[in-house]
Amino acid sequence: MKAKSIMTNKIVVVQKDDMIVDAAKKMKQTGVGTVAVEDQGKIVGIISDRDIVLRDVAENQTPGQSKCGDIMTSNVATASPESSVDEISQIMSERQVKRVPIVEQEHMVGMVSLGDLAQTKGQKREAGSALKDITSKPGLQ
């Protein structure tokens, strides 16, 4: 099964220079836990709700004064729409992430989450294995 069959197509984008509080508001308004960060039309990173808590709030920063580029995860592990769910599971395990952006020609076209894997027929074992790898190592993202 391919990423394009299970990915979420709902992409929410913020700009690198946007304030973190604006990213959090977009997450709430759209019901997503991760936003893509763009700079000059290209995806340069992602921010999860967990990133906001751990990298901004818990560090005693002020979300209204910090920019998305300050806390985003850059060097993001991505996959293509043609990637197999096994490949995505492997990326999650190796990189200790719960979400993998799906990118085509430098543009984000979707997102596959650990939950998406778990809901896919025949993929519960891979999702469980990825979750075990993610939670058994320090640095969960």
Automatic annotation (TrEMBL):
Record's keyword terms, sorted: CBS domain
UniProt xrefs under Pfam families: CBS
PROSITE patterns per record: CBS
Chain positions covered by the region annotation Disordered: 117-141
Domain of life per record: Bacteria
Span of domain CBS: 7-62, 72-127
Designated name of the protein: CBS domain-containing protein
